[in-house]
Structures are given as structure tokens and as C-alpha cells.
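haha ok so turns out i had the wrong file open the whole time. this is the CORRECT one, sorry everyone. sequence first:
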Amino acid sequence: MDTYNSTSSTIIFNGTASDDTAVINVSLYLNGVLNETNSSGLNNSNYIFTKTFTDGNYNWTYETCDINGCTKATVRSLNIDTTPMIEFVAPTITNNTNLTTTSIYGTVDITETYFDNLTFYLYNSTGLYDSQLYEDATRFHNFTGLPDNDYYFNVSIWTTTGQSNNTETREYNIDTTSPLISPANNLTDLVTFTMPIQSIWNYTATDPHIDTCYFNNSDNATYQILTACNNSITTSWVTSGSKTIQFCANDTNGLETCNTTSFTIHEINHSQSDTPDPAVEGDDATFSLNVNLTNIPSTTAKLILNGTSYSVTGTATTNAYVFSKTINIPNTFGNITGKNQNWFWNYTIAGIRNQTTATQTITVYELDIDDCSSYGEVILNLSLFDEEGSSYVNETAGANIEVDLVLTSATNSSISLTYNHTFENDNNPAICLPVGVLNSTYNIDFTIGFDSTDHVWEFFI
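then structure:
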């Protein structure tokens, strides 16, 4: 056979020699060089030569000689290739696999002819990491206890003919470490007087094979995926109370790390009032503060009125504190037209908030009296009446009324007002205070003197 390819290094050459007289000898030529001669002289017989070769390309032919000379047959070609076959077979880890275990293993199928040895090689990012030689029938190897890294795996075979071959090189990544997550930045308790409110926060995640960062919270269980793991995050809250945010990162191997942060949103509501307003010097005015917060802790408060601070003890419920302070208005606070005095509260919710309320005003009047020419709150209305005629005394007939009056606060006797006035030609006079100032109890003492033409001067006490 011409152009014969063989994976065996031993070749049996077979040729038939015939001659019309007699064969003297038959010779084998390899690459044009006499290799061996058979001088048995058999005619019409097969001449067989067995030879062992190294790998390579050869040409060969037979030469037959008789008494008349020698004749060569057609030159033929021969290729010897004992390179072994080797390939990965199951069980072997699929190429380009991300691993979360610490081992890499493989099995090979080989050409067993001329087998000498196998070597399993494992490389990482810095070079050869480990290898294992087998000179027996072992065709499987498992590299174990491997640290995280990128790995490259192949197997080489050698034959007794000096030939070798390799498998493909397979690539693996071992990642047994979950991503590292930082604590959440700026997730702290919030204090607000209105809802909704926002938390603006962020966290970072690191991993050689980071994939995705995502989070959810106690108000919304749906995971929100970040476009980048260190992005600033704005989370809106529509209700107050205890909140929890879970924030996570995973890598391309599916390893995940999650952390949680819990905090509280304190929604505070407060209201304040004063009564009466307007007030009069000498009146008792009550100032009130209500502070509302779910599960409110110990709370203290001070009232600041016209620059003076008053400590106030509050009354507590589960979700509120109530403060009330009654103050007798000093006689320097008002004027006849009504003077505004500033007041506000400062309160402290233990461990949560110190807050000053908005400044309010209370209008304070100075206690004053007139003949109702300027003021409109009547406190004394008089009529000069003729008992005999059962009629009003004629004002133009010299009707005169003299009033001596003392008005004293029932709660603060140091505050009083004396009023003296004579009404001439008036049979129906009245005495007035500024409208709206009578918000507490006053004592009134007065003496009235009156006369008219043809009537005697009389007194009423």
C-alpha cells in the first residue's frame, strides 16, 4: 500500500518475488538505502521484513535479483505517528465554570498504546500551582484545598516512543468568599414634625467578582437594584416608627452578603395655647403645651414669658406630655390700647430632641376706666329717676351724678384702679372698661352722689 499511515512503530513489510528463471535474493530499501537482504532464493514466494521505526516519514521498496541482474519495485511512502490521543471526559468540570468549592478535578481518555505517564497540571494567576504525575492506570485527579483564584487546568501524556500530547486548557474561577459590605452610612434616627421624610444613605461592597447591589426595607419588601454599589440612595418614608433596611451584594458566583440597619423615625407634634387672650393686668392667664410622640420618653418643658423662664411639670400618657402654667399677669405688662407680650415653650424629649416652639403673643391691657367715651365694656350703668313722678329726671334741669369707684383684682389685690368722675346734666351715665378685658373676677366698690333742681343731694354707697 502506498502512502501508508501507521500509529504503530512496528511495520511488517510483505512482498512477492517471482522470476522466469530463478530468484537469487530479495532486498528491502528504506529511504533509498539497503536495509536488509533475504537470500533464500525462493521463487514466487512472499518475502517478509519486520522493522521498528521512530516517528517520521519514510519511503521503501523491494529489489529482486536473478542471474541477469536486479529489478526494483515501485517506491512507496510510509508515515509513522505514535502521538497519543488524550481528551477530557466525564467526570470533568465544564470549561469556564465559576466555582464556590475548593477543588478542581478531571478525567482523561487516552491512547493506551506506548503509554509511559500522565501529568495533571494546575496553574493560577502567578504560574504553576500544583501538578501530579501518574505512571499507572490512574486517569482521574482531584486538586483540593484550593484558595480563591483564577485557575488553568490541563493534562499531558508521554509515550515510550517519546511522543507527547496535551488536553485543552480549561479555565476556572474559585470564589468561596462572599462580598464584603460596609456599614450603612447616614442611616440614623430621624426627628420630624411633618411626614413624609427621606433617608439619604449609601453603602459600599467589594469583591473581585462583584455582580449586583440591592436593598429593601420594612415598608417595601421589593428589592431595589442599584446601578452602582456606592450610589447615594434616597428612601422616602410616609409613616413614622421603627424602620429596618436590608442591604445586600452578590458576586458572579452567586455568593451573597446582607446587612441590616434599624432606626426610628420620631414624628413629633406639638400645640400651644393661651387663655384668656386678651388679658388684663391682674388676670390669671394659662399657657398650655401638648407634645405628642408615640411611646414618648421623659419630657421636660419651660415656659418663657416676656423673657422670664418658668419650669413646668408635665403630665404624661403613653404617647403625649401635657404642660400647663397659670401666671398672674403683672401690672407692668399692659397698656390702655393692649400690649403684646411674647411667649414660647422650650421642651426636651429625653434622648430625642430639644425644641423651641414658635413665638406667640398675648395681648395685655392695663386696667383703665372711662365714661364709655372710649371704652365699650359697661361695668356700671346709672339712671337718675324721680321717685314721685316715676320718670327720668330732666337732664337739663341740673341733673348731676358723682361717682367714686375702686376696682380691685380678686386674685391680686395689689392691682386696683380708682375712678372719680362727675356727670353733669346726665340722667343715664355709664362707666366702661376696654372691651374684652374682663376675663377674671374683680371687686367693685363705689359711692354715688346725685342731685337735681328741686331735689336734695343724696348719696348711695
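The mean pLDDT is 92.
again sry for the mixup
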